[in-house]
Amino acid sequence: MNEEMRTEAVDLVVTAIERHQGNYEAAAKIVKETMDKKAGTTWHVVIGEGFGYEITHEVKNLLFMYFGGNLGVLVYKQA
Fold first, then answer.
1. How do residues 18-71 score in pLDDT, each as one tens digit?
2. Is the dihedral of CA 34, 39, 42, 46 positive or negative?
3. Of 15, 53, 65, 67, whose Cβ has the fewest other Cβ atoms within 10 Å?
4. What are phi and psi of 40, to 5 degrees?
5. CA of 44: how far to CAs of 3, 14, 53, 62, 74, in Å?
6. Could you tell me the CATH superfamily of domain 3-78?
7. End-to-end CA distance of the chain, in Å?
């Protein structure tokens, strides 16, 4: 992701998780729908504790971050 998109995505993830504390499904839905509108379709979002992943994604369209220490967040655009 370019710097601007990454910053927007991080802010979006933080806002969604804080707004829907404990409801990761609702937070992921907000992030996905917003990313689809801003940057085109086929974005996917995974929020949770203790998950692994193996994915195919478009180059420079992946964000993996931790929130609050143990909550993993994966945002990517499918290739």
1. 999 999 999 999 999 999 999 998 999 999 998 999 998 888 899 999 999 899
2. negative
3. 53
4. 85, 165
5. 19, 16, 12, 10, 8
6. Protein Inhibitor Of Neuronal Nitric Oxide Synthase; (3.30.740.10)
7. 14
